[in-house]
Design goal:
By secondary structure, this protein is an alpha/beta fold. The protein is built from 10 helices and 8 strands. Strands 1, 2, 3, 4, 5, 6, 7 and 8 form an 8-stranded mixed β-sheet that branches. A hairpin with a 5-residue loop joins strand 3 and strand 4. Helix 1 crosses helix 10, helix 4 packs across helix 5 and helix 9 packs antiparallel against helix 10. The longest helix is centred in the C-terminal third of the chain and has 23 residues. It is globular, with a radius of gyration of 17 Å. The mean pLDDT is about 95.
Length: about 280
Amino acid sequence: MTQRRGLVLGGGGVTGIAWETGLLLGLQDLGVDVTVADAVVGTSAGSVVGAQVTTGNTLQDLFDHQVAEPRPAPLASISPTVLAGFAWSLLRARGDLEAFGRNVGQWSARRAEKGKLPSLEERFAAIRERLPVQEWAGDGRLLVTAVDVETGALRVFDGSDGVSLVEAVAASCAVPGVYPPVPIRGRSYVDGGARSGSNADLLSGCDRVLAFTPVDRPVGPMRTAGQLLGTLPHLVVSPDAASRAAIGKNVLDPAQRPASARAGRAQAAAVAPLAREIWG
């Protein structure tokens, strides 16, 4: 009987995209190709990588892009103001995960209304640049996560309802307080990381799961990928010491992309035996 294999690609900024890309290529080089997963969950940075690998881009091409000299762009960061907004939203949520999503989403919307965040046009341009192919693969494998600003509920996009891949990825990457919420068909959405850095529980129907999580912490009501997967056979991989050093303190800094990608590729050597055992 064929077993369903799932791949989780978690959030972690532009350095997370680079690290995941390097890790995926490193594993492929060692004979463990996890891009053939039956289901892929992408959250924030992971939605970019998930979109890239499910639409036919080669990992070598994606890696080459990550290690190339980044083009000049405004530097974003998770500033003290943003951290304070997260903390305030968590405090008011009192352990309710959807309440946190509402709080942080609506706080981000207010910041956008006051002109404190980049424009939607800028964000869509940035997302398009990251997606060499901008159409869903059509096989339903990719699940892109976002959080509804009004309800705090998880929204999963898979291309089946006419929402474009660019819209879905832009919503999943809308870090609250850093980038504006993304309007889609009368609703507004923020980063899927406002529910979980991995949203790994969406793959509970798989038989075995690999989860690559650049940032995966149990903050307030949020749960780690390991907690969400429970007893399901799985392996969760986060950056090792060398990768953390390469990523640096600002996960949104494009200048750290090349080092992050190379560190992820190097980390694959230690991950491959465990990944091969889970992946089969």
